[in-house]
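Whether sequence alone determines local backbone shape is best considered at the level of individual chains. In the encoding step, the backbone of a single protein was reduced to a row of integers, each denoting a local shape. For completeness, the protein is quoted in full, as a sequence line and a line of structure tokens.
***
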Amino acid sequence: MLSGRPPTTQPGIDQLLDRLVSGSSRQKRSTASALEKVSEQLPEKAEEALKSYSRDGDDWGAGWILQILQRHQPAALEAIPGVSGGWFHAPSSLDIDYTHLQQALLREHFEEADRLTSCALRELAGEKAVQRGYVYFSEVPPMESLDLTTIDRLWVAYSQGRFGFTVQARLLSALGGRYERLWPKIGWKNEGVWTRYPGSFLWSMDAPEGHMPLVNQLRGVRLMDALLQHPGLAIRT
């Protein structure tokens, strides 16, 4: 006996790509999962679809299209102009090359990306920070806004908007600025002290929102506080 219900029609890849551009945040998240299921159709659509996104922005729709190809059709990436050098523009006031960071994020090698981010922060802090191997909170305010924005944009763009300094800043603000409430929410240890032991972190998209990049809290919250309040990032929050 027929139920009388019309058959369910699954959206085609063109509809999915349109939703990824113009849908609400919730729609985009559900669309991302659906788009991966039709990954075999994406190579012939990807280059045209990417024209809807700005290479100067951080729209994770573009990042996700590239990551789906990387996951399932990596050879197809070679046909897209600019991917080998980083599809998103990544300018630097200090001529720092962020190609390796962008490639690590594209490939979802988040542990490598985190280490590259730490290295970049030391470069931005100056030669003394590079030599000692870590950044003082007092070295953060003079950091170049353009570079911090570039680093944050890349993390946001290649994480479905889940990771990045500005993501952490928004979560902290929603929690009344209370770090003791932020740590467990983003999957960090309650004492806020992070050192890199193997297996201590979830280096994948399945990590809690705001989980990365990591900031060592061994000397308290002042370093992270300085980063999240930097003017270059504050205007993006």
User: Anything to note?
Assistant: Residues 110-125 form the longest helix (16 residues). The chain has two domains: 13-77, 99-234. Residues 172 and 219 are 19 Å apart (CA to CA).
